[in-house]
Design a protein that fits this description.
The chain is built from twelve helices and seven strands. It is α/β, with parallel strands linked by helices. It has a single domain, classed as Rossmann fold (3-Layer(aba) Sandwich). Helix 1 crosses helix 8. The protein binds iron/sulfur cluster.
């Protein structure tokens, strides 16, 4: 277990640009602790998104690349297939993954690419000034719908975990949050499991993190955490949506010993 006051080696010691109360910094720290604990930093390649986390490559102490908006899963696919011994993660927000990058995430998941995706759901486009995102809550006010999202006009928010869990490809999908300490610890367990799933060669893993955006929501950091708890989580329930890692692991083990009966079982 990482000492609370010790900076993970996988996180560079520079000030972050995130707003006070933003969830991105917490998730960065959690990913860095997981990289340290699994001892995978030197062979990890991360993909920074377009969005508020666009400077993620400045913060993570591993190889990082930056690509076009929404294309993280496609870039991760290319890297992982060319260099299977690496650990590849794509870090994406809701505009990046659930809007312009929807095709890439769905097809990477259905192909069960052996990559890990960390999806930050803060229900708004933070970097560009607080416009409506695919994940914006019904009734939530944004700069592009100041009267609040009306599903009759703007449709309903996308539940990414539920949608991807219907596909045959993914090995592990979980939704977590970082609005209090207990949930940060659960988020870390989920992110660690996602990286281990990839490390064990079991296929596609995704962790959605419901995350506060006090600036985009025009709330204090404390009120933003309450908004996550009272408004977002009822619509985006936390939990495991798909986990077939155990059965995939059993098949993988039985293949290793080439025992026909075990493989069939
Ligand atoms: S706008 Fe929102 S998501 Fe972006 S850095 Fe600020 S709090 Fe974080």
């Amino acid at each position: 277990m990482q000492l609370l006051n010790k900076r993970p080696e996988s996180l560079i010691d520079v000030p972050m640009h995130y707003c006070p109360g933003c969830g991105h910094g917490i998730v960065h720290r959690v990913i860095a602790e997981v990289m340290d604990e699994l001892d995978i930093r030197k062979r990890t390649i991360g993909i920074a998104p377009v969005g508020c986390a666009v400077f993620a490559d400045v913060y993570f102490n591993c190889d990082m690349i930056q690509g076009p908006h929404g294309r993280g899963p496609a870039e991760a696919t290319g890297i992982k297939r060319a260099k299977p011994d690496t650990i590849v993660f794509s870090y994406q927000g809701d505009g990046d993954l659930a809007s312009i990058g929807m095709a890439e995430i769905v097809h990477a998941a259905i192909r069960s690419e052996n990559i890990t995706v960390i999806f930050i759901n803060n229900a708004i486009y933070g970097m560009t000034g607080g416009q409506q995102a695919p994940t914006t809550m019904p009734g939530q006010k944004t700069t592009t719908n100041p009267a609040g999202r009306d599903p009759k006009l703007a449709g309903y928010p996308i539940r990414v975990c539920e949608m991807l869990a219907t596909l045959d490809g993914p090995a592990y999908i979980e939704r977590v949050s970082v609005h209090n300490v207990a949930n940060v610890l659960k988020a870390k367990r989920a992110i660690k499991k996602a990286f281990k799933t990839q490390n064990d060669g079991l296929g596609f893993s995704l962790v959605e993190v419901v995350s506060p955006c006090p600036t985009g929501w025009n709330l204090t950091p404390l009120k933003a955490c309450e908004y996550v708890d009272k408004v977002m989580i009822p619509y985006y329930p936390l939990g495991v949506y798909k986990d077939i890692t155990q059965s995939k692991s059993d098949i993988s083990d039985s293949k290793k010993v080439l025992d026909k009966e075990s493989v069939e079982k």
